[in-house]
Every structure is written in structure tokens, then in C-alpha cells.
Amino acid sequence: MGSASSSHNSRSEALKQDNKMGAEDDDLLSGRDREEDIAQFPYVEFTGRDSITCPSCQGTGCIPTEQVNELVALIPYSDQRLRPQRTKLYVVLSVLFCLLICGLVLFFLFPRSIVVQDGGIKMVRVWFDKPNEVVTIAMTSAMSIKNSNFYGISVSNLLSQVQYINTVIGTIQMTNVTLIPPLSEKMVNFTVQLELGGTLSYFYNFCTLTTVKVHNIVVFMRTSLTFSYIGHVSQSSLETYQYIDCGANSTVPRDPLIN
Fold first, then answer.
1. What is the mean pLDDT of the chain?
2. How far apart are CA 156 and CA 174, in angstroms?
3. Where are stretches of biased composition, namely Basic and acidic residues (predicted)?
4. Fewer CB atoms inside 10 A, N or C side of the chain?
């Protein structure tokens, strides 16, 4: 009896397992059938009363390939990407940084004044032409040029004219004179050759007069300088009256700043 009941139980359990496996196989087949049916079934966009068909895909659920680079995706207004953090702080810092850079550029590149001062007469050499009663004087003058800029400047041109009353007695012009480093001062010397003759031949007797120890004459000197720096050109002029001794050579101790 015991063996008969156990065999009956075994057959019933086997039947249950077979039924269960058969049900699973039916579910799997039905699932595959549904997927195939869905794949064959065209996409349909279901719209309610207050909705419209998507104009981009025309109800197909796919965007045409040729319109991929033309269409714009919409995101909700509440999306965090539309509300970046600390935007105002970054904008303020950027503006302040730009203003700082502009201020520094203007501070260092803004043209400052170039001061030109008379350095006096450094040397005088005199020659006498007795037959023609002409006195020739080589007068070496100095000028102090102070550069207050944060960049070097070039003295590109120097023009000096010497007059006695209304008569021009000497002129000199120089180009590419010198370079002045930033925030520095430099002395520049130049020599003008003066000629006292013709209507001024009476100076010959005055300059060769032995009874007079000092033969000073007063001349008017007008000197113009042209400066070039960072694509900018400026001019400066200096007018002075100079006393020179036309009776003998004279030399002033050399200034170490003079070139």
C-alpha cells in the first residue's frame, strides 16, 4: 500500500511540473507573438481633446534624418539648466576683471608728458678768418629729456636754429638722435656751427679786441624735438637765450649723463 501511494504521488507531481512548463512555454510563445504583432503594427499617436499631433514627426514617432540639425529640443522652464547657479556673481566678477585689465592697460600705456629742459652751453670753439673778417663758432649745447612713460621713446628728429636779433647765424638738424628708456632721464648734446660775418662782420673787431677779457654775445636758440613711441608721434620745443664768449675757447666740465 505504501509503495502504491508513493508512486501515485510521484506521477501527480510529474504531471504538475509538465503542466507548469507547458504554461510557461505558452506564455513565452504568446509574448513573442505579441512583440511581432507590435513590431508590425504602425505607430499611432493618441491625442486627447486639448492636444495636437507632433508637427516634427507627423505622428510617426521618428524625426526625419534631414531635419536632425534643424530642430530644436524644448525643455521645461523649471529645468535647472535654465537657472545656472551664481550667474550674477560670475557676471559681476567678469565685469570687474575686465575693468581692472582695462585700467592697468590705460595706466601703463597712457602717454605721459615728456619734459625737455635746457642743459646749457657745454663747449665753445672759436676760429677767426682775418681776411674775410668772419668769426666761426662751434657751440655745443645740451638738453635734458625726461621720459615719464612706462615704455621707451625715440627722439627721431632734432632741429635747432640760432639767431642773433633777427639774423639766423646757425642751424642744425639731426635724425634718429637717441633712445630714452622708460622712467629715465637723458642728456643729449648737439653742436651748432655759427658764422658771424657779412652784415655782422663788426663782431670780428669786438671778438678780437684784446682790451676786453670777456667777449660775451647773446644769441636766441629755438630747438624742436620729435618723439616717437607706440605708434604715436609728438613734438616739443624749447626757446632759450644763451651767452657765449666769442673771444676764446671755453669748456664746461662734462656731465656724465651726456651722450
1. 79
2. 8
3. 10-34
4. N
pTM exceeds 0.70, yes or no: no
The confidence score (pLDDT) of residue 70 equals: 73
CATH no. for 114-251: 2.60.40.10
**Given CA atoms 61, 63, 65, 68 in this order, what sign does their dihedral have?**
negative
Q: The cell 662751434 sits on which residue?
A: 138
Q: How far is CA 151 from CA 148, 180, 218, 229, in A?
A: 9, 9, 38, 8
113 CB contacts (<8 Å, ≥6 apart)?
148
Spatial separation of the C-alpha atoms in residues 7 and 245, rounded to whole Å: 151
Backbone angles phi, psi at 67, to 5 degrees: -105, 10
C-alpha torsion angle, residues 79, 84, 88, 89 (rounded to 10): 150
Sketch the domain layout of the chain as residue ranges. Answer: 1-74, 78-109, 114-251
Using DSSP, state whether 102 is helix, strand or coil.
helix
